[in-house]
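Record now logged for everyone:
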Amino acid sequence: MSAGRGDRAAPPAPDGHWEVRFADAASAKGWESLAQQARENTYRAWITLRTAPRPATETPRHHRLKGGLHRGQTCEQWQIEVTGGGRIWYLLDTARDTCWITFAGTGHPRATDRR
């Protein structure tokens, strides 16, 4: 069965880690494509989402975007560049310690850089 909206991207998070969930079915499908193309980099991105989704120092490959909405709540939005074109965009739901993946894919998102 394929992952979909609201599903976890992995097993439940242990104490002190962030939950990682898909915001919609398209992000879940994109995650699978990204994992097939760049398995190791996608795994590293997942570890980052789980343990340090808000980096102390931004880098060109992991930086903050303009905020986004999730369930009517304004959240910080971040991007991880997994490959040259592959991206993961996610929202931080600090009330639930959850990263909501809003986009994952092997190509740059259609929307231009939202900085």
Remarks:
- The first strand starts at residue 19 and ends at 22.
